[in-house]
């Protein structure tokens, strides 16, 4: 029955029912969008926390990753200078150079030496300290020291893992809120080198434990419990973040717009994390106090230790922005539709040119045309798997994977369209 066959009362009732259905539909869509956005924002927060958690877990419980993180510090001049100063101070304190010089001068004077020898105390002590500094620098700036430090770092981290698992460590210990490394082997090497250079007094340096603070945290007293929670969270949070993201997209009335919003939320969270690292760097350096001899070395240590987290945040942000751009490009906007039409025109022109040249790809091309969407979906999945298996892709790695996948998808489309153009009858080119 058409609307014309209805009387006025029936028509009014029909309009009322239509308005009611429209309001109900809009209300349900609004509720779905509200729930979707809430899930997507929560997913972005969880993914940001997951990035920090996975980074922390790898640094604390993965010795190979930790040694990779520390590698640039082995040849960092600022850090080496700080270590050399620390070892020189320890050697000077152990020898008490001023007391040794005074003792030597007094011994000479008791055998008839002139009183003027007292004026040589300061120059002699300065010369000995300079000799010590030279020997320390020779050791610290040598390739042997680099290898010694590398091995000490690996041993220390192995000991740290043992501490976190409940076993007692050796070269690495928890001293209150400080995580300290024993530089005793380095001091022993400096002692041997001074003896070899003819400074026999170095024999007086006893075997000692010289500590070098690697990190300081109020959480260290509870590290074992925290380590167990960290290990579990490093697996749970990434899965939870992805699950929330998938749920938010699924709940959205428009999957494309939902994915677009989710990608932008994740990108925003990663940018927030990057900003937090910058703020954290300033707070870390400001809180060092006077106990740290080289703020520049401390800054280099912070930058080196956090570089993998910074890289991960940048990588995820770029991947999310590329995803958001792809969602926008598939949307109904004027610019997006114009871009798609322009791309389709170029694709069709190239396909017609290949078909006219006799390059039709035969039955293979027809097969590709029929299954091109499935093939392109597999390419996207393969690209994501490539990124997952790539240990540290970085921003350049993400761009590389995206470009490779995009080019291969375009090639698939071109092959299929060429076969279609070769087989179709003359007529308008399909979009």
What is shown here, in short?
The protein has helices at residues 8-61, 63-70, 77-95, 97-110, 121-140, 143-164, 184-196, 223-251, 255-286, 295-329, 334-356, 362-370, 372-389, 394-423, and strands at 172-175, 178-182, 211-216. It is mainly alpha-helical and 431 residues long.
| Number of contiguous helices | 14
Tell me the distance between the termini: 38 Å
Write out the strand line-up for the largest beta sheet, numbering strands in chain order.
1-2-3
E-strand count: 3
- Note the main sheet: 3 strands, antiparallel
Helix content: over 70%
| N-to-C order of helices and strands | HHHHHHEEHEHHHHHHH
Radius of gyration: 35 Å
Ranges where pLDDT stays below 50 over 5 or more residues in a row are 427-431
Structural class: mainly alpha
Mean pLDDT: 81
Coarse morphology: elongated
Q: Please report which band the strand proportion falls in: under 5%, 5-15%, 15-25%, 25-35%, 35-45% or over 45%.
A: under 5%
